[in-house]
C-alpha cells in the first residue's frame, strides 16, 4: 500500500470534484489517498510522508491557478523523485476541435514549472450557470457556444467531464505507482465483522 496525495486548485469546484473521484478510485485499489486544495494546506505542509503525488489544475482565461504553479515550481525537485501525475480541467478538453489548445496549456504549465510528470490527464470541465451573474453567464455562453446544444439547458449547470476517463486515469496512476514502487495494494477486507 502506498500513500498518494491529490493536490489541486479549483476555480468553480469541478477540479475538486474530479480530485475527489481520483482519490476514491485510488483508495478502492487499496492505497491510502487524500485530496487537498492547494489553498487550504497548512503552512508547515511538506510532501514527506507521501509516496506519490497527483496535481490538478483548471484553466481560467488561458491560465492555471497561480498557487498550483507556484507549488509545483517550489517542490519540483521533490516531485521529480517520486511517481507523479498531472491533470488539467478545461472546457477546451471537452471540445474535439480545441483539444490541441488544451494540450498547449499543459505544455505551457510544464515548461513554466520545469516539471515532468509521469502521467498526464485532460478532462472537460463544467459550466455553473446557476452560480453566474448575468454578464458572466453571457460571456460563458459565448465561450462555450460550440459545446452548448439545444438538448442542454443553457441556464442550468452542465458537466462536460468524462467520468470513465477520470476513472481510467486514476487506475493508470495507481498501477504506475504500484509498478514504480514495487508495492501491492492492500485489498484485503476486514473479516472480523
TrEMBL record:
Superkingdom of the organism of origin: Archaea
Domain Flavodoxin-like: 4-168
GO biological process: heme biosynthetic process
InterPro entries assigned to the protein according to its UniProt record, in alphabetical order: Flavodoxin/NO_synth, Flavodoxin_CS, Flavodoxin_dom, Flavoprotein-like_sf, Protoporphyrinogen_IX_DH
Gene Ontology MF terms: electron transfer activity; FMN binding; menaquinone-dependent protoporphyrinogen oxidase activity
The protein's name in its UniProt record: Menaquinone-dependent protoporphyrinogen oxidase
Species in which this protein is naturally found: Halogranum amylolyticum
Amino acid at each position: 500500500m502506498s500513500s498518494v496525495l491529490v493536490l489541486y486548485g479549483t476555480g468553480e469546484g469541478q477540479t475538486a470534484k474530479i480530485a475527489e473521484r481520483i482519490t476514491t478510485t485510488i483508495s478502492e485499489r487499496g492505497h491510502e489517498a487524500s485530496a487537498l486544495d492547494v489553498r487550504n494546506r497548512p503552512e508547515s505542509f511538506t510532501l514527506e510522508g507521501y509516496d506519490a503525488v497527483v496535481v490538478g489544475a483548471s484553466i481560467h482565461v488561458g491560465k492555471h491557478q497561480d498557487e498550483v504553479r507556484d507549488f509545483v515550481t517550489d517542490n519540483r525537485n521533490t516531485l521529480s523523485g517520486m511517481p507523479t501525475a498531472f491533470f488539467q480541467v478545461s472546457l477546451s478538453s471537452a471540445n474535439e476541435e480545441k483539444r490541441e489548445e488544451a494540450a498547449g496549456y499543459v505544455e505551457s504549465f510544464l515548461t513554466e514549472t520545469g516539471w515532468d510528470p509521469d502521467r498526464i490527464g485532460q478532462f472537460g470541465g463544467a459550466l455553473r450557470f446557476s452560480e453566474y451573474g448575468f454578464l458572466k453567464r453571457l460571456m460563458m455562453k459565448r465561450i462555450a457556444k460550440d459545446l452548448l446544444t439545444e438538448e442542454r439547458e443553457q441556464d442550468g449547470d452542465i458537466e462536460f467531464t468524462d467520468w470513465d476517463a477520470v476513472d481510467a486515469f486514476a487506475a493508470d496512476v495507481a498501477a504506475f505507482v504500484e509498478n514504480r514502487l514495487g508495492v501491492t495494494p492492500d485489498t484485503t477486507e476486514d473479516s472480523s465483522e
